[in-house]
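To: structure subgroup
Subject: Chain for Friday's discussion

All,

I'm putting the inputs and outputs inline so they're searchable in the archive.
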Amino acid sequence: MIRDLYHWMVSWSESAYAGPALFLLAFAESSFFPLPPDVLLMALTLGSPSWGMYFAAITTVGSVLGGMFGYAIGWFGGRPLLLRVMGPDRVSTVHDTFERYEGWAILIAGLTPVPYKLFTIGAGAFYVNFKIFVVASLISRGTRFFLVAGTLQLLGPWVKEVLEQYFNVFTIALVLLIGLGFWIVRVHAKKTLKQTASSASDVNAP
């Protein structure tokens, strides 16, 4: 399924609507789409190397705007659910923890295969400062996509051959990295909840 999705994304590089498709895929990946827009960005840059920076700019804008959409999902939909499940005290504690590391969290998520959508939705749910969120997203996503396009402009088409030859390996690595990202978020959430419970018991102790 992932391979079919990969080839579907690459097929857009031969379409007259490649630019809009790249923008929409980058937008969608920031909130729900499973594969990163780098796939189409690479195909387009390899097909027209001189346009690499232009394609990187489209990807960056689409991804950041998609991140804002994910932020809105968290802001309007995530907070009420969290309040119902965790209660206001715990949500407040997790919010404070998220806010403390907000800029670094977004930078790391935007640059690495850690699921960026988790952080865009989480940033909205925990009311992370919107300006910090946008700036960190611009820096991290822009750095990533311009680096990808620039590397392909320098190294050339052989990178595509390597990617296709070892696609299964890259797919497994991507899945493992995404799984690791979810695991890290889950462990951090459990740790925060334990700290919250411990603090609450200390406060309520006679």
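Points worth raising on Friday:
The CA atoms of residues 112 and 171 lie 15 Å apart.
DSSP finds ten helices and no strands in the chain.

D.
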